[in-house]
Amino acid sequence: MNKYILFLIFPFLFLCVSCEEILFEEDISGETILLIAPKDSSVVESTAVNFSWNAVDQATSYRLQIAKPNFENATQIVTDTTVSTTNYRTTLVKSDYQWRVQGMNSGSKTAFSQARFTLKENEDFSAREVQLITPVDNKITNVTATAMQWQSVNGASLYRIQILDTNDKVLAEQTTEETSIQLTFPEGESFWQVRAENSTQSTLYSKRSIVTDTKNPKKPVLVTPANESVLSDATVSFSWTREAVAGTGEVDTLFVYSDEALTQLVRKEQAGSPAEVPLDAGTTYFWRVKAFDKAGNQGEASNTFTFTIN
């Protein structure tokens, strides 16, 4: 009887603790966010603007808004986003702006802290910046032909795009008057960079990395339980081998079925060999393993083995 009561009480206590954590999450409504940059009434001479502010303890996210020219007489809300960091970077056109930030958690939020600034494009063309759009930095892909895109730079007559190896050796170079291009990347890690040019000057390069992996993982070879084996223990130790392929990280996925047609999936999990899996006694199972990598490639599935648990 006592065990039965405890069985009922423990979940209730757990729920109470969980509710208490939610209900008593620290109230941050009285906290103030300190804006770091751009400061109020500042002048920014770059179309690429970095917004930053101090963290608020217990805030889990921040809402950032940017209005043009201000919130009271806004002709446009340029940005309205929620971020988990205390900085945000975007590209804006020449104009007057007002920006504000508030901290938030699941139960409360701070008041907005706000500041005004004026954006003036740098008169020196070489000091301007190419703002890259896609692909994102450290992109992992299994496609060699990749489209690149960036924001336009005022006064640019063309853009120079380079692909570099890990030693900064130029592997390919092209120019375009457009703000996008598609180029073919080599296998492995490389870099791409873009700069703007006019008849007399050029900006610095803006640079990102990319990892290209087009190779499928190898086919796994099943070891235990052996094909058509009979087991007495319902906790089954699955093991297999697979030759690794150089490239992005690889993972194995174990599939266990209850029918030979492999339509009744019992277990599916990412696992390393060996993997201990509890199953039901008095059942015949069919299993196989397939490998995947971070680039989205997938290898050929292993042969299918069957076993029975008495």
Describe the structure.
It comes from Aquimarina hainanensis. This is Fibronectin type-III domain-containing protein. With 310 residues, the protein is mainly beta. The protein has three domains: 35-119, Immunoglobulins (Immunoglobulin-like, Sandwich), CATH 2.60.40.10; 125-212, Immunoglobulin-like; 221-309, Immunoglobulins (Immunoglobulin-like, Sandwich). 7% of the residues lie in helices and 47% in strands. The protein has one helix at 2-23; strands at 35-37, 42-44, 48-53, 61-68, 76-83, 87-91, 95-104, 113-119, 132-134, 139-141, 145-150, 158-164, 170-176, 180-184, 188-197, 206-212, 221-224, 229-231, 235-241, 250-257, 265-270, 275-278, 283-293, 305-309. A hairpin with a 7-residue loop joins β20 and β21 (265-270). It is flat, with a radius of gyration of 29 Å. The protein starts with a helix and ends with a strand.
